Amino acid sequence: MDESLTAFMNSFATLARLAQEQQPAPSGEPLAPVLEQYLGFAPHTVSVLTETFGNHRLADANIVLEEFASHDPEATIIGIAGQERNHMDLADMLDPGSMHVSIAEPIFTSLAVGPGQQRRFLAYGIHLFKHLGKPLAVALRRADPRFGRETCTLEIIAADPQAGDAFVAGFREQLRETSVFRGHVISFKPSDYGNSNAGVAFHERPKLGKDELILPEGVRERISEQVLGIGLNRDFLRSHGVHLKRGVLLYGPPGTGKTHTVRYLTSEAEGQTVILLNGNTLPLVSEATAMARALQPAVVVLEDCDLIAEDRHFGHGPQPLLFEVLDSLDGLDADADVAFVLTTNRVESLERALVQRPGRIDLAVEIPRPELEGRLALLKLYGGHVHASEETLAEVAQLIEGTTASFVKELIRRTVLIAAIKAQSPKDEDLLTAARELMSDQALLTRNLLGGTSNPDEEDFDDDGEASSFGYIAHSPMSGSYFPMALGEDETDLGFKDE
């Protein structure tokens, strides 16, 4: 080593020493002696047990820890002072040769535990309590990707190895059974730091009656039977060796009622966990499947899954993310009470993948544009406050041929707006005026954006090029059966309120 390099290293060491000397002295008690006094031995002399879990389980982990600590009336929580805590594990903080770390107040955070419900939970601190009569120090730390911590962490120091192992085993078991998400409607909130840091949002469960889902006779029952009926009869099916996991595909043009059907199913699935995936949360299907498995009975909804049919983000080759979705279905135990509901506007983009993965989808139901009877029912459903005559409703239902439920909702809004501008209650003439405006050539783009068609006489053709006379074709790939049905209904935004 030459003289210039030696001089530089000496100068750098001096600079580091001076910088450390300028640091303010810690105001709290040193951490190591506090833990040594509680545990009865020097904590740096034993190994630290570590347990990790997803950031969305922080509330659950707190609930489990609170349960363990509640059995010790002298249990307490301490915090850790200084920025060093963000960069050091518990073992590093307790190393005699490391920087002095002192105790402080624990850090708490507010987390959602249901729609509109919040609770304060520990975000960073150390629980001190006895388990099986032996003292434990259990540090809980939330995930913080800014400092390279992708998951929540438990760090356990036990006076007795058997007590430590028993605590870890008990914590794992209770964490499997405990969840603030159980029985709620939830969705994932993607994180810039990756799937392991995805948050979870609660939604109010929609209230939707059977009369608000306008489908042909037998269609609603067929879908409900597959998605919900299997779970209601799970014990009987299991006793006869029948599998419970199932997949249902709802397909058809935009605006015809697929999302509305999902809202109805969510409303009817009272007490079940419903996990919603759409848009940029669709890649979280593996996380959703794992959660559904733990929280069954559960329903996993993948909205507009054609968006992932051409996704290349998860590897090379055709449809990698779509295959991940189908493999998630296949990876569930046969007796898992989990239903997957997929919706798509472009079933042709999924068909090849579904054929290559037979048995993942047990029921596929086409939901096309409504026929005359359906359009009339939609006008009555959404136009209840318009008080139009039966004759006008029938005339308008004929006039708006080829449109969708989304179109009908906009038609009713336009009708009420016309009446509002005239400062009068909606009348038949307002409904007719709105219908003629929206069905005019000038409104062609608007009509198409609402799921309508520029050619109401256009027939729907099947794969063989022959026109189908049925509004619905319900198909069960596993049985090979087809169920011809008729007309469709409204599709709107899911309408779930974030919490």
Automatic annotation (TrEMBL):
<dbReference type="Pfam" id="PF00004">
    <property type="entry name" value="AAA"/>
</dbReference>
<dbReference type="GO" id="GO:0005524">
    <property type="term" value="F:ATP binding"/>
</dbReference>
<feature type="domain" description="AAA+ ATPase">
    <location>
        <begin position="244"/>
        <end position="371"/>
    </location>
</feature>
<protein>
    <submittedName>
        <fullName>ATPase</fullName>
    </submittedName>
</protein>
<keyword id="KW-0547">Nucleotide-binding</keyword>
<dbReference type="InterPro" id="IPR027417">
    <property type="entry name" value="P-loop_NTPase"/>
</dbReference>
<feature type="compositionally biased region" description="Acidic residues">
    <location>
        <begin position="456"/>
        <end position="466"/>
    </location>
</feature>
<comment type="similarity">
    <text>Belongs to the AAA ATPase family.</text>
</comment>
<dbReference type="InterPro" id="IPR003593">
    <property type="entry name" value="AAA+_ATPase"/>
</dbReference>
<dbReference type="GO" id="GO:0016887">
    <property type="term" value="F:ATP hydrolysis activity"/>
</dbReference>
<dbReference type="InterPro" id="IPR003959">
    <property type="entry name" value="ATPase_AAA_core"/>
</dbReference>
<feature type="region of interest" description="Disordered">
    <location>
        <begin position="449"/>
        <end position="469"/>
    </location>
</feature>
<dbReference type="InterPro" id="IPR050221">
    <property type="entry name" value="26S_Proteasome_ATPase"/>
</dbReference>
<keyword id="KW-0067">ATP-binding</keyword>
